[in-house]
Amino acid sequence: MSESTLEATRAAEGGERPDADALERMYRLMVVTTLADERSVKEAKAGKLQAAFYPVRGMEAVCAAYGEALRADDRIVSTYRNLGDALAKGATLRSIMAELYGRVDGMSKGKGGPMHLHDASVGFMATTGIVGSGLPIAVGLGLAAQLDASSEGAESRVVGVTFGDGATSIGTTHEALNLAALWSLPVVFVCQNNQWGEHTPIAEYTASTELADRARAYGMKAVKVDGFDAIATWRALRDAVEHARSGAGPVFVEAVTYRLTGHSGTADYSYVPREELDAALARDPAPTFRRWLAEEGLVTNERLDELDAEAAEYVDDAFAYAEASPAPGPDELMADVFADNTWVRGLA
């Protein structure tokens, strides 16, 4: 990582931190994400899930930081690598796991699958299976938030959108960045740079690996942060959210991490350089954050053990719930496929 563009300081360098309750929430979310992710990979390999699963290992700190930076009424658009994002925005693990198993108690009644998690009740507006396609959706939501705030004289909601480094080479990404900057929309673009575009390392698919510079070219604020550092990432995202909410325009946050697994839950990743993977595993987000919390005297080891146990129980409960949920029946075959006959208000 280029130190000249690393604009958010690491936690060890001091600075503001979330309060004690927030630190515990962040740690618990990271552990839940790790445990649920690892178990989902096992279930995918066993053939128990109804579609492919895309792990989020390595990005847990970014997800936890995002969860604390956003308000409950803010919205988010995610990618198919969405488990941590959904949890961070307040979705229940039960509903997520039931969807992965293709059961009626899932977020989309078992018909969307892992690549299409969605829960508007908590502001988790959409996930997309097409690389880069979430950004224009977020821009549309950002425009709606801006218009709502103007008409109501209220503070704007913020729309967050997450995407991988590979998405920065997609045309729709650049169209979305340009429009968001042009209209000063309250959107925070979060590039979860895990340094792999599916099976291709970043340096082999782009000549410019400083991804934040791409957003700066459109006239928006952009920062690069160590995505393994939960506190530095929280600071960067908190500042970005405040900037966007104030009406000052969108922000691009490049959170540099490393993918700790294959592209999908069943994919081989022996092609990943061993030394790079070992270095990344040495900074595995949840264990690293636990050590830091204990060493700084912010959370006792006894309390951390309790949080670990709570997380494990929560994950066990979610998987048991999902397996016990029934599959959709024949009556659901055509439901949610076509619009009903309700007319748009004012056009009848």
Verbal overview:
The protein is of the alpha/beta class and 348 residues long. Helix content is 42%, strand content 11%. The chain has helices at residues 20-45, 60-69, 83-88, 93-100, 134-152, 171-182, 212-216, 230-245, 274-281, 285-295, 301-324; strands at residues 75-79, 124-128, 159-164, 187-193, 196-197, 200-201, 221-226, 251-256. The strands form 2 sheets. Strands 2-1-3-4-8-7 form a 6-stranded parallel β-sheet, with helices on both faces. A two-stranded antiparallel sheet has the order 5-6. Strand 3 (159-164), helix 6 (171-182) and strand 4 form a beta-alpha-beta unit. Helix 4 (93-100) crosses helix 11.
Percent range for helical residues? 40-55%
| Strands, total number | 8
Strand order of the largest sheet: 2-1-3-4-8-7
Judging from the principal axes of the Cα atoms, what is the shape?
globular
- Main beta sheet: strand number and arrangement? 6 strands, parallel
N-to-C order of helices and strands: HHEHHEHEHEEEHEHEHHH
Short characterization:
By secondary structure, this protein is of the alpha/beta class. The protein has helices at residues 20-45, 60-69, 83-88, 93-100, 134-152, 171-182, 212-216, 230-245, 274-281, 285-295, 301-324; strands at residues 75-79, 124-128, 159-164, 187-193, 196-197, 200-201, 221-226, 251-256. Helix 1 crosses helix 11, helix 2 (60-69) packs parallel to helix 8 (230-245) and helix 5 (134-152) packs parallel to helix 6 (171-182).
